[in-house]
Design brief:
With 301 residues, the chain is of the alpha+beta class. Helix content is 19%, strand content 35%. The structure holds fe (ii) ion.
Length: 301
């Protein structure tokens, strides 16, 4: 069993790095780290050096990163994954440097999502210098991958990793926790591999609604919300960034402190209120497709 201690980052390929970076800073509100590599923008939301890296190249998600405890845990994970038949690749020193981690391994889940496990992701002590402080972002909240069969995806994540289902939305979604937060990893049903969305928590309900107005004023496409998910109780707002990348702000995610007492529930997505208990219009967020391994990506992608 591999213990994921946290989510680490999303790495996303963008054809237009300037436009994607402008959106991530001026609209979403993230801090842009001082550039250290040509063609890569590192965006920060919390203690992590970055949680989003935009990499100039073909459009599409490159990888999703999760932390493990230390170098030993990473070595054990590598052995365990290889033993289970997966092809595991160790990142080079330059690739690890670009991710601001000490070491990492990469593999594809059974659906083609590229996953990276990292040790010692760099922490920055200085408070985040948000490009748009009014967004109210407090942290990188969760990431959501696509898979054609969410139950198979759950089998993958729960048998090899410490992921536990918190709630099911029928066969449409599996919401998983790796710590007390209701979900830090979700899998939505989708045709192929990709990143359904990346979530940022905000400090208050007011932030969600202020952001909603801000996004509308700036002609950003709102995909869904504001609404409230009955599963996590989070108030959500999904919106579309450049190159098919869906961002989400949310506030008020449930914490499951009593592991033993929690029983996962199943919601029928066709039932009114199953996605938004306020009964607002719902639509599936747009997925940024996985960059395929046969597509050329930059040397430190
Ligand atoms: Fe979400």
């Amino acid at each position: 069993m591999i213990t994921l201690t946290d989510i680490a980052y999303v790495r996303s390929g963008v054809a237009d790095l300037d436009a994607a970076t402008r959106f991530a800073t001026q609209i979403v509100g993230l801090e842009l780290a001082a550039p250290t590599e040509a063609g890569i923008a590192h965006l920060r939301a919390d203690h992590r050096h970055h949680c989003l890296a935009l990499v100039e190249g073909p459009s599409g998600v490159i990888s999703s990163g999760f932390s493990v405890a230390d170098t030993d845990a990473l070595g054990d994970a590598e052995t365990e994954l290889e033993r289970s038949g997966l092809t595991v690749r160790r990142g080079s020193a330059a690739q690890a440097r670009s991710r601001r981690v000490r070491e990492f391994i990469a593999f594809d889940d059974p659906f083609g999502n590229r996953v990276e496990l990292v040790s010692q992701q760099e922490t920055i002590a200085r408070p985040v210098a948000f490009s748009r402080p009014a967004a109210g972002i407090t942290e990188f909240g969760h990431l959501c991958l696509d898979a054609p069969d969410v139950r198979e995806a759950y089998r993958f994540w729960s048998t090899r990793f410490n992921a536990r289902v918190s709630d099911w939305i029928g066969d449409a979604a599996c919401l998983m926790r790796i710590d007390p937060v209701h979900h830090k990893l979700a899998v939505f049903r989708g045709d192929g591999p990709g990143l359904c969305h990346m979530n940022f928590q905000v400090a208050s309900l007011d932030d969600v609604f202020r952001n909603w107005h801000f996004l509308q004023e700036h002609d950003v496409e709102i995909e869904m919300g504001p609404g409230r998910h009955p599963q996590s109780t989070a108030v959500f707002l999904y919106f579309l960034g450049p190159e098919g990348f869906t961002y989400e702000y949310s506030f008020g995610v449930r914490r499951i402190e009593d592991e033993a007492a929690w029983v996962p529930r199943t919601f029928d997505p066709a039932e009114p209120g199953a996605i938004d208990m306020w009964l607002g219009p719902t639509s599936r967020p747009i997925t940024q497709l996985q960059v395929r391994a046969d597509q050329p990506v930059s040397a430190v992608s």
